[in-house]
Automatic annotation (TrEMBL):
This is Integral membrane protein. The lineage of its organism: Bacteria, Bacillati, Actinomycetota, Actinomycetes, Kitasatosporales. The chain crosses the membrane at residues 90-112, 118-138, 159-181, 201-221. The keyword Transmembrane helix applies. Keywords: Membrane, Transmembrane, Transmembrane helix. The keyword Membrane applies.
Length: 417
């Protein structure tokens, strides 16, 4: 295929040039179809006479369209990750240039010093290492690959730990550079003394805590997912907002306070390094303690978030004009509870994966469109029909969410009349 075929509107699955355009077109087509169905348009005459048949037909059409959107989104996400490594490399080297300009401006009048040279060399070494690592992992986001979690979102704990690790490496390289350039033995002794624990105890403690939390949080989340106490769905691609939000895109207090306090502490440590480039930044214990309290709050939030979905009650769905009656085959039942829609699973392709197990029969939850979204399913209420294959008598109802987590079993009585 020629290069002209990939310009502008290409939507083929393996073309990074048209992946974004293909995804946008699929989303636009899906939204148009959903709004038409919500307005009662586009139904074929063969199913228009039956409410249940038309609902099932609409749900199937939307499910197929949502699957196309999800596939286009996956391709667009992979293409975006493939381009990200170059962007991260540009940002890294822009930071090096910024450091050079700041050093040049602050050297006016004071003169260029060995510490400035050591800082610039340290920045070049760190930037080169990040660029090389980013190129090796260019298919997974470049330099950001280590901080992207298994759910394809940026991990707050890993990002914080990586920031402190890079800063400490930079500090050590600055001191090593100064030590290599030192000619006087007293200056060398003073630089070596700058590595003593008494001077860097605060920053070493913070580094140990944030790295330990990055490992602990990964373990906690993994165990909670396996234990069905936390629902996780994979994102199409990582976003910068992931550092401050939960999986549903809502602002998270625990993440925001952790990122904010750690950023403040990093800025303070950078200023201390600029003022005293002959030793590790002596982070005051008061500031270090604030970071530790923030880290403990973040971990506690990870333990507290989520929860297993639960069915609270099941009732027969009644439309206006219907008589009160027991549940029979063909009736709609309304399942009330909590946690049916996992965070980040509000898209149609994820909603269409929800299943209700009624006895031995698995019923896919139908998508019911309304203007701007769906009225079924929701996080607290699901409506599904009772299939004819369900035998009369007492049967168990159980919901399987898009994350694969099962709710408790709830017994209902299906009447034979």
């Amino acid at each position: 295929m020629g290069s002209a075929a990939h310009d502008g509107g290409c939507t083929c699955g393996d073309c990074p040039h048209g992946a974004r355009t293909g995804h946008r077109r699929a989303v636009a087509e899906f939204l148009l179809k959903r709004e038409e169905f919500a307005a009662g348009q586009g139904l074929p005459a063969a199913v228009a006479h039956s409410a249940s048949a038309s609902r099932q037909w609409v749900s199937d059409e939307l499910t197929q369209s949502a699957a196309v959107v999800a596939e286009r989104g996956r391709v667009e996400g992979e293409a975006w990750l493939g381009r990200l490594w170059l962007r991260t490399a540009i940002v890294v080297w822009a930071a090096v240039v910024t450091l050079l300009l700041v050093q040049a401006l602050t050297a006016i009048g004071a003169g260029w010093t060995v510490a400035r040279t050591a800082g610039l060399i340290a920045a070049l070494l760190v930037a080169a290492a990040l660029t090389g690592a980013g190129y090796l992992h260019r298919a997974r986001g470049g330099a950001l690959a280590p901080v992207i979690g298994e759910d394809n979102r940026l991990s707050t704990s890993r990002a914080i730990a990586a920031s402190w690790v890079l800063f400490v490496v930079f500090c050590v390289l600055v001191l090593v550079g100064r030590l290599a350039a030192a000619s006087d033995h007293r200056e060398r002794d003073a630089l070596i003394a700058g590595f003593e624990l008494a001077r860097g105890a605060g920053i070493v403690t913070v580094l140990a805590v944030v790295c330990g939390i990055a490992v602990l949080v990964r373990r906690v989340v993994g165990l909670r997912v396996l234990g069905q106490r936390l629902q996780k769905v994979r994102a199409h691609r990582p976003r910068a907002a992931d550092l401050l939000t939960d999986d549903a895109g809502r602002g998270s207090f625990t993440d925001i306070q952790y990122v904010t306090l750690c950023a403040v502490a990093l800025v303070f440590a950078a200023v201390r390094l600029a003022r005293r480039p002959d030793q590790l930044p002596d982070l005051p214990w008061g500031l270090a303690l604030l970071v530790l309290v923030s880290a403990a709050t973040y971990v506690a939030g990870k333990y507290a978030e989520g929860g297993r979905p639960v069915i609270l009650s099941v009732v027969r769905a009644r439309e206006a004009g219907d008589l009160d009656a027991p549940i029979r085959n063909g009736d709609d039942i309304e399942i009330r509870g909590a946690g049916f829609v996992p965070p980040g699973a509000q898209t149609a392709d994820r909603l269409s994966r929800m299943v209700v197990r009624i006895g031995p029969v698995h019923v896919h939850v139908p998508l019911v469109p309304v203007a701007g979204g769906f009225s079924n399913p929701t996080d607290a209420v699901l409506t599904v029909p009772v299939p004819a294959d369900v035998e009369p008598g007492k049967v168990d109802v159980q919901v399987v969410t898009a994350a694969g987590v099962e709710t408790n079993r709830y017994a209902i009585e299906v009447s034979a009349d």
